[in-house]
Amino acid sequence: MESFWLRMQYILAMINKKIALVACVAEKQDFSCSAKDMYISKEFKFWMKYAFDWGANKTFILSGKYGLLDLEEKIEPYDFNLNLQPMEYRRLWAENVLSKLEQKTSFTRDHFLILSNHIYAKDLVRSFRHYDMPLNIQ
Asked: Cα 27 to the chain's mean position, in Å?
């Protein structure tokens, strides 16, 4: 057990920032607003609180339509479900998200908290050295 804690301390010492990635949801405002205010479901609010309580240095939203969103980024309402898109589309979506994330984070040093289903996360986590998916979101 002691070696586990030593290893965890080593890993935490090597990590630069804590980055939360929160999935979008179907329930949205019907007017343009900041990304953090667009999504209105109880689940989304819970996931945002979870990211905050986890101590995220930076939180992003994973939008099926827009890709990676900063919380204050202004967006229009939309009806688009990434889960229903073909695998090739989802792969390209993930490449776009990773390209944007790479400019703002370190895939090798930062620790990623992924609050999404496996469809959103599958092609992202392969690039992250340290990540957790604590919620079993289907």
From this structure: 18
